[in-house]
Amino acid sequence: MERREKVNACKELAKRSGQWTSFDPERHAEVMLDDMENGLRIFLDALPEEVRDDYEDRYIEKYKEWLSAQSRCFSQAITGAGGWKPATFRRHEKTLQAERNAYNRLLEWCQKVIKRCNRQERLTGWAEVERLEAILEQLTEAQEKMKAANKIVRSKRLAEVEKLDELVALGYTEEIATKLLSARGWWGAGFAPFELSNNNARIKDTEAKIHRHRALAERGVGGDEVHEHPWGKVVVAFSEERYRFIFDGKPEQDIIATLKSNGFKWSPKNSAWQRQITSNAKYAVHRVIEILNAKYNEA
Length: 299
Fold this sequence. Notes:
By secondary structure, the chain is an alpha+beta fold. The chain has helices at about 5-10, 10-15, 25-45, 50-70, 75-80, 85-115, 125-155, 160-170, 175-180, 195-220, 255-260, 280-299, and strands at about 225-230, 230-235, 240-245, 265, 270-275.
C-alpha cells in the first residue's frame, strides 16, 4: 500500500478527532491527514533508508493514538457552555491533558527512534553544532514561509488568482497553494495555528540544543577535565560529550549496579562507564561519586 493510501485509511478517525472541536470535521480531517503525511515524511527522511519501511506503519499507529485522544476532546465553541457543571470542566481538562500527552509521546518516540537509528553517525562538538544550525535554518525558513503564506491568503486587496500566483512565487506548488486558499478548519484558509506553533517549538528545541553543544565545544578547546579520587577518576570529556568513570580494576557488582541504575554504560573502547553530558547526567555523576566516596570511607 502506498504511503498516501495508508494515510487516507485514517480519514474516519481524523474526522472523529474534530467532531467536537471543529465546525467542519471534514476539513479538519483533511488538515490532520496532510499533517500526518508531512510529519511522516520528515520523520522517515531523518532515518537511514534501509529502516524506513520498518517504521512507517509504526509512526502512523502513534499518530492514530493522538487522533484518538483528540476525538475525546470538546470545545465550548462547538458544544456551547450552557449547563456545564464542575464535573464537565474537570473532564474537559483531563481530555485536553490526555491529548497533549499523546502528542508528546509521538514526538518523544520519533526523537528516540531517530537517535537510535543514527547512533553510528552521531556527531559531537562543532560538527554537531553545524548540523543543528543547518536544521535551524530550514525550520526558520519554513516558519517565515508559512507566515508569509498566511498573510497572502488573508489579504483583502488581492484577488484569488493573484493570491494563487503569490503563493506559487513563494515556492509552493499550485496544488498546495490551492489547498491553502480553501477553508481548512475553524481558522479559515492558510496554515493552522498548531502548524505554526509546532514548527516554532521545533525551532526553540533546536536553538537550545545548539546552545548546549556550542558550550560543550567551546569548553572542549581547553581539553578534558579529570577529577582524581581514591577509587579511580571522573573524566569530563567535552569533545565527545561524555562523563566517564574510570577505575583501576573491575568495580564490585554493587558499584556496577549503581552505575547502571544511574544511566551509565560500559564502553570497551574507552575502558570506562560513561553517559552523555546533560543536566540530569550531572546530578547522576554527583550521586555516584557520593556513593563511591561513602563506600571507600567505610572500607
